[in-house]
């Protein structure tokens, strides 16, 4: 089969590789669409930790084309979405149903060949049926589940004022989820005007460009001078991670969703707000709960299926498999404005 293969020095080459053998409990999926995640592009900027050659791609959907002898839940021809996390099912966290905290997890697209390929092999447990949902929309189930893991976990209430740092893909999905819950006001913060315009389109009531505007002053103005009830940090920015402590009200809650890519050093007055204001800080990693893969995944599927979350318009670019390298170059060099970028290994007939 053909695949976009990652080699040393972050080189991606379009190559003909051997198909992986199929175990008794596994399914072979013809990949119809696969999304490029922000974590994929981050890995291209830093050191790849998982060995070469590699095939990335963990946001994907496709058609079942082969099943192992012990597979009972899927049939040839069914449409499915892939679940990339492979928990160990044996550590204390897995045994308590907290799969996102698994001590010995593996990931499709990191530890194993992923979906930037014509086909991918997936354990039966790591697939969900998508019925007639489009393959492209189904690729957005995974990032929406990441957003919902944080939103559901921080538990916003009807009437809350909530601030979202970062209006990228996860931020926009978070804003849409908050709108469904019925929070009073949503404030989107970013440093790019284009992202803030998108945030308005997807439900933000107020926007702040923290690069050129007075963040704390405007937050007070938009929150009756008290600060926001909840902050969801989706940017993975050291600056935003610190600013989150400054804009939340006393007894407020902060959800850290964005991956930290650098050290964060807190000024004394920011750190003091944690205990003087009795704040609740929670981190949210990945998107899983019990029963695996969890309500984050089933809710994401239903929200997209019922058109309650608009993911279709978030897909801005599509590249064939043999142009995966060009897709990454476009993102990394910011050649064009984009949101979700898809790789299309096999065209639907």
UniProtKB/TrEMBL annotation:
Xref: Gene3D superfamilies: Medium-chain alcohol dehydrogenases, catalytic domain, NAD(P)-binding Rossmann-like Domain
Claim: Metal-binding is one of the keywords in the record: yes
Keyword Oxidoreductase: yes
Alphabetical UniProt keywords: Metal-binding, Oxidoreductase, Zinc
Residues in Enoyl reductase (ER) domain copies: 9-342
Names of the cofactor(s): Zn(2+)
Taxonomy, superkingdom: Bacteria
GO MF annotation, one: zinc ion binding
Family listed: Belongs to the zinc-containing alcohol dehydrogenase family.
Protein's recorded name: L-iditol 2-dehydrogenase
Organism: Marinilactibacillus piezotolerans
Source lineage: Bacteria, Bacillati, Bacillota, Bacilli, Lactobacillales
